[in-house]
Design a protein that fits this description.
The protein is built from four helices and no strands. The chain is globular. Helices cover about 60% and strands about 0% of the residues.
Amino acid sequence: MSVDVNREFAVCGDCVSMINDVSEGTKDFDETEEELKLVVWLNMKHLKKSITKSWYINDSETRNAPANKKSITAAITTSESYLPDGYLPEGVVE
């Protein structure tokens, strides 16, 4: 099965945008603080999984933010700063 690399980076870009929107507090969300932590955590997990994939590692195209490697790495760092140390959503076991 072939991977649509452009689509994968677009999805990562959506994750980056969501993480940035939540962490910067620039948008109004109806979710509680706990729900927003979950949103950030889920998007961070997706990005962390993506950066281990061969389509990501082997990609050398120049891409625009937020769907580029620099933005993805920054969003992971932002997520880790936003979430409390050791944060794990209720009911999740790693």
